[in-house]
Design a protein that fits this description.
This protein has about 270 residues and is an alpha/beta fold. It has a single domain, classed as P-loop containing nucleotide triphosphate hydrolases (Rossmann fold, 3-Layer(aba) Sandwich). It has helices at about 55-60, 85, 95-100, 105-110, 130-140, 155-170, 185-200, 240, 245-250, and strands spanning about 15-25, 25-40, 40-45, 70-75, 75, 90-95, 175-180, 205-210, 225-230, 230-240, 255-260, 265-270. The radius of gyration is 19 Å and the shape is globular. The relative contact order is 0.16. The structure holds adenosine-5'-triphosphate (ATP). Adenosine-5'-triphosphate binds near residues 49, 53 and 213.
């Protein structure tokens, strides 16, 4: 008998994880996780090193199967859907993806090739529509003038922006960003936070999930937060309810005090 499809009230759910666990070599990387993301939500996932953030993102990117529980992405259940049909509908940036891009690749090729799910040049197959879209995205990220540079000659911050443009190339319904501000200097971080904030506030932008270690990197416009520790959710929900001194202290196992300035957060040890 075929499995029933998702009820219609779940249509707006871009991600739905129920009772999810990921186990490797006898360790629980994630356990008992219930989490969902709606179309118009922008989530930050925060937690210390080893908390399971990247594992969670890889589940949401259809790169991993759960060991326990169920993962539904864009209305399809992982394990029942062809992940190669699903992946172009999900934009994903991470350090691991950046490492796979050859240094001599032209910036515009890095972006446009996302539409063909390849790394490397494939120029003969690109059409003008794709090249125009890549140029437009590079413009949105403020790096249109770097289209003809090679990826290897860019600064860390410029590379992060190219990767975000690449992850938007297929017009995804879900955008996953794994520590996009890691390794950036203060100016680079602030610039990226501002660009992500613009994207978060754009009603046409996809649902977004941003993984970070730092509350300072939460872009204004992000609506929800999930705090992870040792593979478990400490708390998840609306940003203002979740990002508190108490919850951060529990998550990072330190006595932390949170400060707010406008729409930005800052944290330090008490
Ligand atoms: N294949 C594996 N076998 C055993 N343990 C693993 C495996 N892959 C990851 N882990 C462990 O699972 C835990 C969660 O890893 P994950 O990369 O999801 O954490 P993270 O929150 O993203 O960490 P970080 O902030 O340091 O990037 C880590 O302790 C990691 O060492």
């Amino acid at each position: 008998m075929s499995e029933p499809s998702l009820p219609s009230d779940l249509d707006d759910l871009v991600v739905r994880m129920s009772g999810v666990g990921v186990r490797r070599s006898g360790n629980d990387l994630l356990a008992d996780l219930d989490w969902s993301v709606e179309l118009d939500e922008r989530w930050v996932v925060l937690g210390p090193n080893g908390a399971g953030k990247t594992t969670l993102l890889r589940l949401a990117a259809a790169e991993l199967h759960p060991t326990a529980g169920t993962v539904d992405l864009l209305g399809d259940r992982i394990g029942r859907v062809n992940i190669f049909d699903l992946r172009p509908r999900i934009g994903f940036t991470s350090a691991a993806i950046a490492q796979r891009i050859p240094g001599d690749e032209l910036v515009e090729d890095v972006v446009v090739s996302a539409g063909y799910a390849v790394m490397g040049r494939w120029r003969e197959a690109y059409d003008n529509l794709d090249l125009n879209r890549a140029a437009e995205l590079l413009g949105t990220l403020g790096i249109a003038h770097m289209a003809k540079r090679t990826f290897g000659t860019l600064s860390e911050g410029e590379r992060k922006r190219v990767l975000i443009a690449r992850s938007l190339m297929t017009d995804p319904e879900l955008l996953l960003l794994d520590e996009p501000a890691a390794g950036l200097d203060l100016g680079g971080r602030e610039d990226l936070v501002a660009r992500l904030s613009d994207l978060a506030m754009d009603p046409d932008a996809p649902a977004m999930v941003l993984v970070t270690h730092h509350v300072e990197e939460i872009p204004p416009g992000f609506t929800h937060a999930l705090l992870l520790r040792d593979g478990h959710a400490v708390v998840g929900g609306l940003m203002d309810d979740v990002i508190t001194s108490e919850n951060l202290s529990k998550t990072f196992d330190q006595d932390l005090v949170l400060q707010r300035s406008g729409e930005r957060f800052f944290a330090r040890r008490r």
